[in-house]
Design goal:
The chain is α/β, with parallel strands linked by helices and about 425 residues long. The chain contains 14 helices and eight strands. Strands 1-2-4-3-5-6-7-8 form an eight-stranded mixed sheet, with helices on both faces.
Length: about 425
């Protein structure tokens, strides 16, 4: 009888999460984007390098990296020109090739869809771009190839390629969070704003369940594996709001130095041990964040469990008294941003941070002193030259994309 009563209480709280807190019923159900990049069928049919290309869906990032390491510069450029939508999203491919491929794919996509015009601006380092559905994108701030410390920002609800550049709540948007963190952390660091999964819209059922987060966890795991396969340092991952649910479900598979959650509704784990990670786990929540009104329960698939800032959870506490609201953690001058910068640099956190650290969390990871090479051992200069090619060849490549790859970019453009 007592167990039945507890179940009723948990169900009532979970229902309150969906129906009674801060407009939880306002969201629209989303279909998670899964599977390989657009254009994968044409990629699989291509035999031009003298053999089969690695399957975008089944090949591991390590296998992808080894494949590209065996290609000549000319063969790499041909694949970029023929299959920009695949190369640009292929985890494990050299990042310089991905930048070039996504610039080509975006130039074409922006002609038909105004959502992507700002993303197609020259000089942006777009590491992933998928126009299907609401669109997904990842952008790099700083020099990822030479960075000694790398961070990835994983956002929560209402983020996609169309909202990526929004100015409202700038420091709470993916670009604002990543740009601010990299600018404050300074030379030797790079930060990726990663909107690589289908996020909930509003705070409806999708935001109260783990369905979209599980699909996002799979994609985040592969993305981070692709970074390390390309010779980059293991990243620190900063997870905001629903993004912390994604990170919680991915934690046991992520090879990362730090897992930092902010404004979290829960990580679908009872404590740090339940995450099964060797990373340092940090948590921040400011006193004015509305997320504090969301019940931390998990019942019948609803809710995300224990508040990561609860001392019983065992995470290192990030001070956030100076942050304001759900989107204020990266605001300049705040104690939370100062701590994030220390984590991003790989240095000891400033005074007070981590005072409630769990004893099981490993010590600080020292920053490497060497500059990582690309997956094929080439110098960064050679890889960049391979990716860009002579001006005449770049012009031909651009034309090839319009003629031969246009169908591939457009095939997934519709919702």
């Amino acid at each position: 009888m007592r167990r039945y009563a507890r179940a009723l209480v948990a169900f009532a709280l979970a229902a309150g999460t969906v129906a009674g807190t801060a407009g939880w019923v306002s969201g629209d159900a989303q279909q998670a984007l899964t599977g390989p990049p657009p254009g994968s069928a044409q990629w699989r049919a291509d035999r031009t390098p003298g053999g089969g290309l690695p399957d975008p869906e089944r090949a591991t990032p390590g296998e992808v990296a080894r494949f590209f390491a065996g290609l000549s510069a000319a063969e790499q450029r041909r694949l970029v020109a023929r299959h920009p939508s695949v190369v640009g999203n292929l985890d494990g491919a050299p990042l310089e090739l991905r930048y070039r491929a996504n610039a080509l794919a975006l130039a074409l996509a922006a002609e038909d869809d105004p959502r992507f015009r700002s993303l197609a601006a020259p000089g942006r380092r777009i590491l992933a771009f998928d126009p299907r559905g609401r669109g997904q994108v990842a952008e790099v701030f700083g020099d990822l190839r030479t960075a000694h410390r790398v961070s990835v920002v994983v956002p929560g609800s209402d983020n996609d390629a169309g909202t990526f550049d929004r100015k409202v709540a700038d420091h709470g948007a993916p670009v604002g969070m990543a740009r601010t963190l990299q600018a404050e952390a300074g030379p030797g660091t790079a930060v990726v704003a990663w909107v690589g999964y289908t996020t909930p819209v509003g705070v409806g059922i999708d935001a109260a369940t783990g369905r979209l987060a599980q699909a996002g966890a799979d994609r985040l795991t592969r993305f981070t594996e692709g970074l390390t396969a390309d010779g980059l340092p293991e990243p620190a991952v900063f997870c905001h709001s629903y993004g912390s649910v994604v990170c919680g479900l991915a934690a046991h598979r992520l090879a990362v130095t730090d897992l930092v959650v902010l404004g979290s509704p829960g990580m679908r784990a009872d404590d740090v041990a339940g995450l099964r990670t060797n990373a340092r786990v940090w948590a921040a929540k400011d006193p004015t964040d509305w997320i504090d009104n969301v019940p931390n329960v998990r019942f019948a698939g609803l809710g995300h469990g224990t508040d990561p800032t609860d001392p019983a959870f065992g995470a290192r506490r990030v001070p956030a008294d100076e942050a304001r609201g759900h989107a204020g953690y990266f605001a300049p001058g705040t104690d939370s941003l100062r701590t994030f910068v220390a984590i991003a640099r790989g240095t000891d956190a400033p005074g007070g941070a981590g005072a409630e650290a769990d004893a099981r969390v490993p010590a600080d990871v020292s920053a490497p002193t060497d500059v990582p090479a690309s997956a094929d051992g080439q110098t960064p200069e050679r890889v960049r030259a391979s990716a860009e090619g002579p001006a005449s060849e770049r012009a031909r490549a651009s034309e090839d994309v319009r003629v031969s790859a246009g169908g591939r970019v457009r095939e997934g453009a519709a919702r």
